[in-house]
Amino acid sequence: MDITIRAIDLGFGNTKYVSAAREGQSECAHFRSLAFFSASEKSHDGLGGRRRTVCVPVDKLFYEVGPDVELAADRFRSRTLHDDYIHTSEYRALTAGALAYMKQETIDLLVVGLPVAQYLDKRAALEKLMTGRFAIGRGRHVTVLKTLVVAQPQGALFHFAADASRLRDLKSQRSLIIDVGTRTFDWLVTQGIRVVPRMSHSVNRGVFDVVRLIAGEISREIGEDYQNLEAIDEALSGRRSLRLYQKDHDLKRYEPLVQKIADEAVSSMLQQIDHLDDFDSIVLVGGGAALFRKAVKRRLPRHVIQDVDEPMYANVRGYQLIGEEWARANPQALADARQRHAQHLGKRPSTQVAAPAATVAPGEPATNVPSDLSSAPASSAATGANSACAPGQ
Ligand SMILES: Nc1ncnc2c1ncn2[C@@H]1O[C@H](COP(=O)(O)OP(=O)(O)OP(=O)(O)O)[C@@H](O)[C@H]1O
Ligand SMILES: [Mg+2]
Predict the structure, then answer these.
(1) What's the rounded Cα separation, in Å, for the pair 256 and 217?
(2) Which among 49, 153, 219, 227 would be 20 to 30 A from 355, CA to CA?
(3) 133: pLDDT strictly greater than 90
(4) Distance 343 CA to ligand 2 centre (A)
């Protein structure tokens, strides 16, 4: 029986998820990390037809989430930008929304991530929160049998390394992975594929800080409180002007603000990293990569900064690969999880699970799975002595 592995990169700005996966290739999609609550279950307007959203029940309320969530924005917009994000109803609603869009009833293994600075403290709690039964609306449910939690840029590293020749190179190299998100700027220093914890961290400096500052400037210029942060964000990421009172408002004039925020983030990172000359690969990912690129290059002028296609999906694509590697190394843990679930449902279990096809080159030891990804016993070379370790170890 095939196993189903999926990944979600739930950020403060966007919820990215794997909608389909096959032999190391994944299809991804995303929606804004906005959830609008209501007392009853509804997901379409009286006028304007059906929205591409789902309405999921969480904590005695219903939360509308999905690609068209902006159309539901008929009330106060609050973003849950705080360190306890994972315990909020919104976080659960966004997770349930991503699970609903995956169109799977049962997920054997779900891979999710945390900002580097929160990884050690919150990993166990998140693993628990993400495992189990999620209501996805209209009486339907999705069950997650097992969850792995990784530090967010680890996903990008795996995605970057997925190319077989790069994986071989990376094993002997020192790399720096920088992930520019909406709220957090994360970086991971790795020696080979092992994380160097004392040099890896994250700070709360991201695209949202830029957006907020620009909103303040615009408010001053137009003489009224301008709070359409989403409009600024979209204009910035689409590199186009902001429409304001029927006129184009060029955002290029705020470039010094962008550079200032980006500089602060990069400075925080450089304070914690030594032997800069030693890095072979510096990889820039996250939806804000393009916005912060100049600042990174300015402070690291002698290095080549490497980009990836669709940098916003780099983490989630890597999570999926990590999940596939882990499944190959731990088939029994997944079989046991499925057996427990079947017993719970009162069905006869299938104890054999087929491991997914290898994504590493034949003959290549699957050493790139962090050894402490799960409490399940290590069972193969993939979790052997050469395994990468997670931050803080
Ligand atoms: N195609 C795009 N769609 C949406 N956002 C984009 C796009 N391209 C760039 N961005 C920018 O990327 C930012 C979101 O990036 P990303 O999804 O990596 O952040 P996040 O993971 O949600 O945040 P964090 O890592 O801080 O939790 C947005 O603020 C937006 O400005
Ligand atoms: Mg992110």
Answers:
(1) 12
(2) 153
(3) yes
(4) 37
Domains for the chain: give ranges and CATH numbers.
5-152+315-363 (3.30.420.40), 164-205+261-310 (3.30.420.40), 207-256 (no CATH)
Q: What are phi and psi of 231, to 5 degrees?
A: -65, -40
E-strand ranges in the chain read 5-10, 14-22, 25-32, 36-38, 54-58, 61-65, 106-107, 109-114, 132-137, 140-144, 147-151, 174-180, 185-191, 194-195, 201-203, 242-244, 247-249, 281-285, 305-307
**Cβ 182 under 6 angstroms from ligand 1:** yes
Predicted TM-score (pTM) of the model is 0.87
Residues with CB under 5 A from ligand 2 (ion): 11, 181
The pLDDT > 90 percentage for the chain reads 69
Q: Is 371 a residue whose pLDDT tops 50?
A: no
Report the pLDDT averaged over residues 17-44: 88
53 — pLDDT class (breaks 50, 70, 90): very high
Q: Is the CB of 11 under 6 A from ligand 1?
A: yes
Nearest atom in ligand 1 to the alpha carbon of residue 180 is 18
CB atoms within 10 A of CB 160: 23
- Residue 202 Cβ inside 6 Å of ligand 1? The answer reads no
Instruction: Return all residues near 177 (Cβ < 8 A) that are at least 6 apart.
Output: 153, 154, 156, 157, 160, 187, 188, 190, 283, 285
| H helix intervals, 131-227 | 152-161, 164-170, 207-222
* Burial of 213 (C-beta count, 10 Å sphere; 0-12/13-18/19+): middle
Which atom of ligand 1 lies nearest, measured to the CA of 184?
26
For residue 151, CA distances in Å to 13, 332, 358 come to 17, 24, 23
Would the pLDDT of 79 be above 70? Answer: no
Rounded CA-CA distance 76/203 in Å is 27
**Secondary structure string (H, E, C) spanning 72-124:** HCCCCCCCCCCCCHHHCHHHHHHHHHHHHHHCCCEECEEEEEECHHHHHHHHH
